[in-house]
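User: Fold this; tokens only.

Assistant: Input:
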Amino acid sequence: MEYPEHENLEVIKEESQIIGLFLDCLGDMNLALCKWEEGHGYGYEWVPSGYYHSNKSIEEILAEYFKIDRKKLEEEKQQMLSQFIEANNVKQHT
């Protein structure tokens, strides 16, 4: 079986680890990633345009940057686990 998302992870492994360590280091330095948001209203409350803290995790940022589909990645993990369990069951019955 092929696992394309896991294969993609292997290709970007070194670069993603470096970027991940950098992003983690920002938190250690009390720095945060922010994103620009246009002003918008919620009911009677107006939120002005400005930079707001990004709520994305390091994993989410890396997945988006490297175009890794996290849902497909999880599906592949489940498929690997199922195959492992099936192979283990066959081995025990032989």
